């Protein structure tokens, strides 16, 4: 398992780059993960997306529909892809577990409206 050091923190990831211990997540950890994923600075808009994804997952235990994320954080309908390019990158930075193959297949259809 990869371990990264950032701002005095030791962060353990799985082999695919997902945070091993969800309870370790905070904004500093998010910055470390964003840097690792090449996602740039975590602005307040980006952080709102990440926090919403985390709260949605905690309530429903599933990857949210991207437009629903944007609507609930008061951003344009494509906010996740505009801010993070790839939604799974946002998911990783939010410190959530690997969403699995089913979500990866679903994500491929979503931009087409299915």
Q: Let me know the largest β-sheet.
A: 2 strands, antiparallel
Count of beta strands: 2
Q: Helical proportion?
A: 40-55%
**Topology as H/E string?**
EEHHHHHH
What percentage of amino acids are in beta strands?
A: 5-15%
- Which of globular, elongated, flat, extended, rod-shaped describes the shape? globular
User: How confident overall, as mean pLDDT?
Assistant: 89
- The residue ranges in which pLDDT falls below 50 over 5 or more consecutive positions are 106-114
- Total count of helical runs of at least 4 residues: 6
Radius of gyration: 13 Å
> How many domains comprise the coordinates?
1
Q: Tell me the strand order in the biggest sheet.
A: 1-2
Which structural class is indicated by helix and strand composition?
mainly alpha
Distance between the termini: 36 Å
């Amino acid at each position: 398992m990869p371990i990264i050091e950032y701002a005095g923190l030791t962060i353990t990831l799985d082999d695919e780059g997902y945070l091993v211990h969800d309870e370790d997540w905070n904004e500093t950890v998010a910055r470390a993960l964003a840097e690792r994923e090449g996602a740039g600075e975590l602005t307040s808009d980006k952080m709102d997306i990440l926090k919403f994804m985390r709260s949605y997952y905690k309530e429903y235990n599933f990857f949210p529909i991207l437009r629903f994320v944007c609507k609930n954080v008061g951003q344009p309908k494509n906010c996740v892809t505009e801010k993070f390019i790839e939604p799974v990158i946002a998911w990783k930075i939010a410190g959530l577990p690997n969403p699995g193959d089913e979500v990866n297949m679903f994500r491929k259809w979503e931009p087409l409206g299915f």
